[in-house]
């Protein structure tokens, strides 16, 4: 089954570029384009995409409001729609607001084409993705709001093997599976297995939750390299 994607960006050249990139990928189909948030909401209801690739700053209704409205409609209509925010504006406030609105991911527009396609597949599967550098920076900035290890004991951490703890530390520092594999001198398949075990044992939904959990439980500390 092909992943149906709706492109939302007020710049026609960017929409054309994203279309060319995505239509060269197997099992990804661009089913429509919208130039603003109002059109994005209407086209989502009409076309029923699996993933909406959403810009943030647009005339009229912006990407944050459009994301919120789309996901509220989808929940009420029983539709599975994911929103992946893609923007040139690397601002923490935008990231936080996008995730609060229910977006499944947040990437910058300079993301390599293969990573963009991979991100669409990830959010289509129901997981979440945030550019690792953004995730790490956000947590460093807001870590003082998180509970300390003493306030948030986590007995399930005892279920992790030492290698799984090591993978969690590296994941929380923003490393991709490929980077973790190189660091540990193992295959990406092995890393994926470890990540899956970590999520299952800790009862976490996705990598973003795993990163937050690592900060909450003291596996990593703000500013730690």
Automatic annotation (TrEMBL):
It comes from Streptomonospora mangrovi. SMART domains: HTH_LUXR, REC. It holds the Pfam family GerE. GO terms for biological process: phosphorelay signal transduction system; regulation of DNA-templated transcription. This is Response regulator transcription factor. Residues 4-124 form the Response regulatory domain. GO terms for molecular function: DNA binding. InterPro entries: CheY-like_superfamily, NreC/VraR/RcsB-like_REC, Sig_transdc_resp-reg_C-effctor, Sig_transdc_resp-reg_receiver, Tscrpt_reg_LuxR_C, WalR-like. Residues 153-218 form the HTH luxR-type domain. Keywords: DNA-binding, Phosphoprotein, Transcription, Transcription regulation. PROSITE patterns: HTH_LUXR_1 (PS00622), HTH_LUXR_2 (PS50043), RESPONSE_REGULATORY (PS50110). The keyword DNA damage does not apply. The modification 4-aspartylphosphate is found at residue 55. The keyword Transmembrane helix does not apply.
